[in-house]
Amino acid sequence: MNPNKPAQEPGEDPIRAHVFDGIAEYDRRLPNWWLVTLYAGIVFAIIYWMATEHFGRTTNESLVDAEMQRIEAEKLASSASNLDEATLWKMSRNPVFVEAGRATFQSTCASCHNAALTGGIGPSLVDNIWIHGNKPVDVLKTVTDGVAAKGMPAWGPVLGGKKVSEVVAFVLSHQQAP
Amino acid sequence: MSIPAAPRPNRDFVTTIREDGSRLFLHPADVHGRWTSLRRWSGWLLIVVYLALPWIPVGGHPAVFLDVAERRFHLFGFTLAFQDTWLMFFGITGLGFSLFFITSLLGRVWCGWACPQTVFLEHVYRRVERWLEGDAVARRQLDSQPWTASKLIRRGGKQLVFFVISALIAHLFLAYYVSLPELWTMMREAPGQHWSAFVFVFVFTSILYFNFAWFREQLCIVICPYGRLQSVLLDDHSLVIGYDAKRGEPRGKVGTPEAGACIDCNRCVQVCPTGIDIRQGLQIECIACSACIDACDTVMDKVKRPRGLVRYDSPAGFAGERTRWLRPRTVFYAVLLGVGTVVASWALSTVRPANLAITRLVGAPYFVTDEAVRNQFLVRIVNKRDVAARFVITLPGAPDSLVRTGMDGAVELAPLAEEVRPLIVQIPRKNYSGEFALTVRLADEAGTFYLERPVRFVGPDKQLLDEDAKERAAAKLKESQP
Amino acid sequence: MSDRKITIEYNDGIVRQFLLACVLWGAVGMLVGVFVATQLNYWRLNFDLPWLTFGRLRPLHTNAVIFAFVGNMMFAGVYYSTQRLVKARLASNFLSQLHFWGWQLIIVAAAITLPLGFSRGKEYAELIWPINIAVAFIWVVFAVNFFWTLARRQEPALYVAIWFYIGTIITVAMLYIVNHLSIPTSLLHSYPVFGGVQDALVQWWYGHNAVAFFLTTPILGIMYYFVPKAAERPVYSYRLSVIHFWSLVFVYIWAGPHHLLNTALPGWLQALGMSFSLMLWAPSWGGMLNGLLTLRGAWHKLRTDPVLKFFAAAVTFYGMATFEGPLLSIKSVNALGHYTDWIVGHVHAGALGWNGFMAAGMIYWLLPRLWNKPLHSVSLANLHFWVGTFGILLYVAAMWTSGITQGLMLNATTDNGTLLAYPNFLDTLNAIRPMMLFRVLGGGLYLFGWLLLAYNVYRTVRGAKAVNGTIEVFVSNHAAEERLGLGSMILNPPVAFSVLGTVFACAWMFGGDFLKLAGLFGTALVILLAWVHFRTRVSRWAAWYDRLLLNALPFTILTFLAVAAGGMIQIIPTTLVNRASNVEGRRQIPYTPLELAGRDIYIREGCYNCHSQMIRTLVPDVLRYGDYSRLGESIYDYPFQWGSKRTGPDLARVGNKYPNLWHYRHMMDPRDVSPGSNMPNYPWLFTAKTDVDSLPSKLAAQRLLGVPYPEYKTGELSALVAEQEKAIATDLKAAGALVAPDREIVALIAYLQKLGKYEAIAPRLPVAP
């Protein structure tokens, strides 16, 4: 008897004729559902390539750009539509903004600028000396971006545009409108 | 017209994968008996539990509500903040390890009795199938019929019902993650407004439908790693479902002389939902559902032989030995489970009603002014309780000369709110003699608990500071002398 | 036929050597792993010593586990099974010994150089260039020994395990050599020839396929031999083996870019990486199914036989890891999981579950056969299995929890998506600190299990007599008509259809408008024709394949073609993208000589093990770290430092974010400025002097690579360096910190402050894929 030929009874499953170091191999068909997953993977790859490379109008970059623009717009919108000088002055006379700004100021800014805005670690905000510009937009910029060298942090990323504009309105409410 | 026979399992191959690779769709026969009834009751109980958890309010929130949007988890009246997500670890390992333990004692009891796959398949989908298409013989008959209008309606109807049930389960599953009113709102609005939730439910429904309508036991055989590991974790004294070959063999019809107890009626094969013959021993497919026990017991009752030819027993028990429940392994597992429980409870007890995180304000680590050296921190306080609370920040052990601004008074936080505030500390130049450690302590106003975080007050090299002071003094002197 | 009966004695001595080396290095590699994992939670364990810091030891762990542990295991398994499967003794005793001792010497060299900070700065390819040459040489020795043995085989046909070994040998050689091409600047230092995006692509083509062809295919071959042997069952399906092997070797190689999803890598490569990873699921599971269903017939033996237990669990973990892999390659899942511990968990499910358990099963099976003595203790082996499984459970559960928690926290936003919910990176780190501890526990248990194995090996081997296997074979001449010539190797349906399909698919991918369309239709037509032909002439395909199995050389050539295709199609077009004049409107400003010296310190300390330099095209990344990174912003980075894990924050735009003083304090003790940080201290940077002397040769190498450095006159270079050093030291002094300008910390600060600097250039049209 050939040692490389496995014993095979009639009606049994197909077994390969050759044996390797005692290892025989059946030759079963693959489960169809497994084959389907293989084909589905290939079909998906083709469709995905078509969708992204031929007909795709968006890329990673365009998607993130669009979303960042939305965030930018959202920030602008929440900090009033157009933060020019006049708007900020108008906000500083509106108790809704001023009161909201007061709350943020007391929790966030008072530690350096004093609850009465008279200054401490940071400069006074009720006098007429404006180190980083006296226009309302300058104040807004200072609060948003900070003055790193002196220890004034950028509050824009922490508070968000809405709260920053309210705080600026609160600060301006202590000043004479032009 | 011939009705295809029930499958003839063979120990070498998976019954449900035919030789040409196609799927053999099983139609297990009806079975009645004590285990089946018990399983039906426990199954329904589990279904109710699985589906009701997001509905039952405990302490103002659903019993289980993983609020992803608000980054909070409500578990049986216990609210965890996102920072506590690590406790999920105990859930995962606890579940995994309990199953190790249970497997060593009771075998694959999870698979047959508690796994959602089995529970929903046996008690919901198969019930629907039975109700619409009749028993196993009728279903096989229907299989072999040509596609007539009546078959189309019956089959189509079944699939439709399956799909609806799947959609229902998917929605209820979503309720674990979004609150019920929110879910209801989403369901009434157009899908476009809640695109991600819609896609989630749609995909999940499709997966459930595919799985329960067609894939079924293939999931347990091929996909689920758990079933396999469980089989691997058995030993000679673990409880399994088996066939008492000593009593049963050789098989023979009633009245055959010298025959064992098994009359080779094949009932155990007909009722098996995974298509195996339990008499061929422990196999990968067996989910320990106990259907074959009831089937065999019924037959044994009929032929007036004692029950238990197919029964729950350990491999040792089937070999005629005594099953040892207490073995080094089970004792060790029990000890480990105990240790795990203790550690988990300890970890849960360390969950404080608040969370405190100290970071530095972005920028330089310290500032030197004419008078003082200054450090600037940002304090983040999270109120993890469902009630408003007032917190105070103190600096225990700080030098007297340290001046602190910010967070002087108590901070009031709404329920489950978080707040970020600056904390500025400075020390006069003359008192600065180098860097030192600083402790920031958060306590509630009543003083029921506190949390501490170590930070460091950093500053310039003392020598450089002194030199700078001298230079300044000299400059001042120069100024004052015209 | 003049058959002659001879007796062959197998060379099992070499198997025993590799097996014992595997046990030893496995313990060492795992021990280092447990140690570095502990360092993550207890920074004091870095001991303020350069050669014990995480950044230097983590490469030691990965290299030890991959090349020392799995490498030795693979060689033991390959040598044992190949001799028996081809019925021939290993061709050369000398080459076998050279292979063994050469490999051990490489491991020792790596264990010395890595902690000393000699590194190429590329993951799993850290070893310095002289060692690279040694590795390549020893690999060739292995290949020669293997193929020479095949040439002397008494078994005409090649069994499936041999296919996998062939695939392993040629692919690893190709990957290793390409990814280690370097220009030396000194005996211990070199720069890779690829930079920026090219280097990223080549690195992950290598890194991903190191997993594929070092940790997977040889082990699959071992599975195909040892599992049926141990189970005493026939293999479930031969035709599944065929499809599984060819689809795996062809598809795997393409999937590298899934390590670079959402980065600056061109979109078409990301699309290929993702879709091929998804395609990979079925072939991987084919292997899993074949192993599992082979074991199925012996399922009742699992209860008692630890060998089968290990194999069954290993196959299960292989299935889990190869399911998780494609899942993580989906872009949106990747956005959450990448750079977090989830990936670490994924890798360890494979390494501990698949590699470690296959190794254990194989060793327990081999011991009694190699030393002719029963295993010392079966119950100890069972204990090893339980301890190991429990260890994996703890480890993987901890890493999943940790990764998903941190991923969700990093990506969480408030105020309608405009603000980060956890703007400080440390908040997210401190939330997962407990998980780092549990992972140590899991890893420690796994190591304990391995030590049980080592003890079992010791007790079994002690006093036992080594035996070599023998076999009697009939020597016969191969029938000449079974030889496959060049013509019939290429001109046959399976190969012809595959080649045509690939060519058309390339035309479709890269061609212009018309070619693209033609390629698409051509691909579809070829697939259709192949399918029809296969349906009607299946016996011709099978007969040809049976003939191919008798011919080792054509088989090897075809395997090489299959694995080379993916790499070439991805890498060659990318080498055209990176040149300085183009990309995406931004060009990196080259480092000054001092900054370059600082960069080499950054690489030496292994900072890339915890910090990425790649801001992905994802909103949370942009909100946290700034504008997303462009291709052009790293074109002068040899090697690229995009990183693969963020234990700390991204550094792509850290330049000018903090004052010099901040970095100074941070490197001295990170907790001074970042309370709660787990980063080690780097006190030696404040005393060691910057290596300025090597700059001329480094700059020369960089110039050769195309970085626009001018030729410096005598003295010009040192003046330039001194000037920049002085500026930084002066700034530090003004802020209250005293440091001599020639210290390494100054160079490192110079480098860090340069990160993210670019000049805008007129954008060109992007290169069309």
Account of the 3D structure:
Chain A is mainly α and 178 residues long. Chain A has helices at residues 32-54, 60-78, 85-92, 95-113, 136-145, 156-159, 161-172. Chain A has two domains: 1-56, no CATH class; 81-172, Cytochrome c-like domain (Cytochrome Bc1 Complex, Chain D, domain 2, Orthogonal Bundle). The model of chain A is unreliable at 1-11 (pLDDT under 50). Helix content of chain B is 43%, strand content 18%. Chain B has 482 residues and is an alpha+beta fold. Chain C contains 28 helices and eight strands. With 769 residues, chain C is mostly helical. Among the domains of chain C are: 15-142 and 161-223, Cytochrome C Oxidase, Chain A, CATH 1.20.210.10; 482-575; 584-760, Cytochrome c-like domain (Cytochrome Bc1 Complex, Chain D, domain 2, Orthogonal Bundle), CATH 1.10.760.
Distance between the termini of chain C: 59 Å
> What kind of sheet is the major sheet of chain B?
5 strands, antiparallel
Calculate the terminal CA-CA distance of chain B, rounded to whole Å: 125 Å
Alpha-beta content class of chain B = alpha+beta
